[in-house]
Amino acid sequence: MDVRSASGRFLGTGLYNPHSLIAVRLLEGRVESLEGYLSERLEAAIAMRERLGSNETALRLVHSEADGLPGVVLDRYGDYLSLQITTRAMEAHLPTLLDLLSERLSPRGIRVDRGVRARETEGLPVGEDQHVGEVPESLSIPFGEGELSFPFRQGQKTGLFLDQKDNMKALAPRIGGGRLLDAFSYVGGWSRAVTAANPRTRPIGVDGSGTAISFYRRNNPTGEGVDADFFSWGETARSAGRRFDTVVLDPPAFIKSRRLVKEGIEGYHKAFRLGLSLVGDGGVFVACSCSALLSWEDFFGVLRAVFRKDGRPGRLFYTGRASWDHPRILAMPELDYLKCAAFYVGDRTGP
Fold this sequence. Notes:
- The protein is α/β, with parallel strands linked by helices.
- It has 9 helices and 17 strands.
- It folds into 2 domains: about 35-135, 2-Layer Sandwich (Transcription Regulator spoIIAA); about 160-345, Vaccinia Virus protein VP39 (Rossmann fold, 3-Layer(aba) Sandwich).
- Strands 13-12-11-14-15-17-16 form a 7-stranded mixed β-sheet, sandwiched between helices. It has a 5-stranded mixed β-sheet with strand order 4-5-6-7-8.
- The longest helix is centred in the first third of the chain and has 18 residues, at about 35-50.
- The relative contact order is 0.10.
């Protein structure tokens, strides 16, 4: 359908879904053939990554609306692809997308993630993943001077959280060398990056997924992996007087919809306050949020409140967003979803 402004100016072709809270998804320009459009936009997304000179094994190749393909997320892990579709029109053209990917990239296997809850908002079923070709249980990718292993066939979302890789690269040389708490650790990417930068680091990862912790232990053989709910484990650790030189708190999205913004902000406040209480004086606190509906203003508002209640000063020395292969368009602030902030934590009388 054509999308026009109130004055009648043509804005673009839209994908209409009366069953979704977002009734129209805007494409780029006037689209006569969706099949042709898919081919053009896929090629353009890949060309952008190639133009920017990436030789990374793990890479986001398509980032939804930012690449003109609403509801399509595509990650590459070497010879394997992980595809996620959350819009009805793109789901209807899944066979076309799979053919295009096979022709352009010649992967050994493609995993189509059907488990993400965002599909429900479009009236799409949530169920078992679809596998095309060879889809192994796990994969390993180059990570620093070593490797990082993760569950692929049954992994969370597209397999790894590639949006944090630039933040890990920037912070790892600065925050290691002591006791590191990696909260909501998943497979231990933060621990692996910091330990690789400073082998004296003593990491401990806490995550509520037994599968994730089994991979954490594989990726961090000198660390400790704890299969536990962070809130329960953290309260016990705080009461026991445990403190860490660095705490990285990278939780899942607490805000799933606009009606849950207040509840989600309360969740971040609880998590950040507990995480900060486990940082020793002179330590580092890294706080992250991947909730698109949490604004930067509210993110920092929560952190200001947490530091005020803690009673220690926090010196912000780093802020980060999603990695470079997760592009944004200025007209859609929701794409600026990942927030990462690192603080030097003083004491109650010092700097």
